[in-house]
Specification:
heterodimer; A: Rossmann fold; Rossmann fold; 9 strands; B: alpha+beta; Alpha-Beta Plaits; SH3 type barrels; 2 domains; five-stranded antiparallel sheet
């Protein structure tokens, strides 16, 4: 499928070969620390109706480094949405102003709907607990850069596998590859949703579900940590029961393989201890940095080719 | 179709549709579901909890003088997956078939996910669900991809 004017809604809309094209483009941009005018005269609307730091600002940076302009609309309060305008009307309006829409909304399926009504391509910047495809691209790219690839690795995904969109998209992304085993580590109540589990099973990925981080960590090449997100819990009591269930610190990591990498889509709260930041295991700041190059590569492929 | 002979007399219909093998107690749900598309005219008979060889107990709905079209009939499978449809003309069964759920259900069944964009009143996005499996009946939202199960569908039509 051609990259030009393509929507980015779900990581599974892409094949492994297409992701490889994206990663090669990101490699070039990364190695040159590229600045250019590829997007000169083009406008990217940043429609973020839910809080965002990394995703919004890394897209903002990516557009600027490629010489394009941004049309930011952050948080519902500052806009006509607060006056009662629908999301659909907002999308139609920005569609007429911009060449590409990058959209975040708390409602699941919002990006699919936006892509349905918008003529300009839509990039899903996160829709509720559903998808975060560009985060998954960054995650897979980070593993490719630091580990040479995903195939054959033992990968643990820790935290909120039920409501976490980054975890869900990362796990779906892994199914495009051949990891030797995936460990799904979470409290009982935050186990993977059936819709994602069915994809793993259909694609024949070997996986283990466990609550025992200490036992699992010994086997891992990659530990992907996610925050237990208070804002996704329908019931605050349910959140109170599981908050702080896991903590990745140096004592835990003393049990790990020497070349384990610890990843996190950020923001973190207290699930990774600060002492890990300085250790050889910490890959999360590299991951955040690579995010800009992946988003630059994506914008370049979609708007320029 | 065999005559129902369990002591309650429900006359055969001359022309119309008989929906047979509805799970016991679900006849009213079928009626509510059909009510979406079927204008109320002619006589309607509902037989509840009658004996059935296959199901133990079953419900039957007889609609006089009407032949709901195929798209409407397919919806019956969402609440009565084993129902059979008999079209009657001149007191004879002219066509009999088992219901098959549609591949896509648009605007009839709500997505089970309260946070789905289709459940946001302000947006007015029509729910679109695709068939994932027939047995057990399971649909998936085109937008948020969440599953809506048979039980969820029954609850929606019982609520109304």
């Amino acid at each position: 499928m051609s990259w030009i004017s393509r929507d980015v809604i779900n990581i599974l809309d892409f094949t492994r070969d297409e992701l490889e094209t994206l990663f090669r483009e990101a490699d070039k941009l990364f190695e040159e620390d590229y600045r250019g005018d590829d997007l000169s005269g083009r406008i990217a609307a940043l429609i973020f109706l839910e809080p965002s730091t990394r995703t919004m600002y890394s897209f903002y940076t990516a557009v600027n480094r490629l010489g394009g302009s941004t049309l930011p609309m952050s948080m519902a309060e500052a806009s006509s949405i607060a006056k009662g305008e629908s999301f659909g009307d907002t999308i139609r309006m920005f569609d007429s102003y911009a060449d590409i829409l990058i959209v975040r909304d708390r409602r699941e399926g919002a990006a699919t709907y936006a892509a349905e009504i918008s003529e300009s391509p839509v990039i899903n910047g996160g829709d509720g607990a559903h998808n975060h495809p560009t985060q998954a691209m960054i995650d897979l790219y980070t593993i490719r850069r630091l580990k040479g690839g995903v195939d054959g690795l033992e990968i643990g995904v820790l935290g909120d596998l039920k409501y976490g969109r980054a975890a869900a998209s990362f796990i779906l992304g892994l199914t495009l590859y051949k990891p030797s085993r995936v460990y799904l580590i979470s409290p009982e109540t935050l186990r993977l949703k059936p819709e994602v589990r069915d994809v793993i099973e259909d694609r024949g990925i070997e996986y283990v579900e466990t609550s025992d981080l200490k036992a699992a960590v010994k086997n891992l090449d990659v530990l992907y940590v996610t925050r237990i997100q208070k804002e996704r819990f329908p019931d605050p009591l349910e959140y109170q029961k599981v908050r702080g269930s896991y903590r990745v610190d140096m004592s835990l990591l003393s049990e790990a393989r020497e070349d384990l990498i610890v990843m996190h889509p950020l923001p973190r709260v207290d699930e990774i201890s600060r002492e890990v930041d300085e250790s050889r295991y910490a890959a999360y700041f590299t991951q955040a940095k690579l995010g800009v190059y992946i988003r630059m590569a994506l914008l370049k492929l979609i708007l320029v080719g | 179709m065999k005559t129902v002979d369990d002591g309650i007399l429900v006359r055969k219909i001359g022309d119309g549709t008989v929906i047979d093998h509805i799970p016991a107690g679900k006849a009213f749900t079928v009626i509510r579901l059909l009510g979406v598309s079927l204008p109320p005219r002619g006589r309607l008979a509902i037989i509840v909890n009658t004996d059935s060889g296959k199901l133990g107990k079953k419900d039957i709905v007889k609609i006089e003088g009407q032949y709901p079209d195929e798209d409407v009939i397919k919806l019956i499978a969402l609440v009565a997956p084993h129902a059979t449809i008999n079209y009657i003309e001149g007191y004879k069964v002219v066509r009999k078939f088992r219901v098959e759920p549609p591949e896509e259900v648009v605007g009839v069944v709500k997505c089970s996910n309260p946070r789905c964009i289709t459940n946001s009143d302000r947006e007015g996005v029509s729910p679109r669900l695709q068939l994932v499996s027939q047995n057990p009946l399971r649909l998936r939202c085109v937008y948020c991809e969440r599953y809506t199960e048979y039980e969820d569908i029954l609850n929606q039509f019982m609520e109304k």
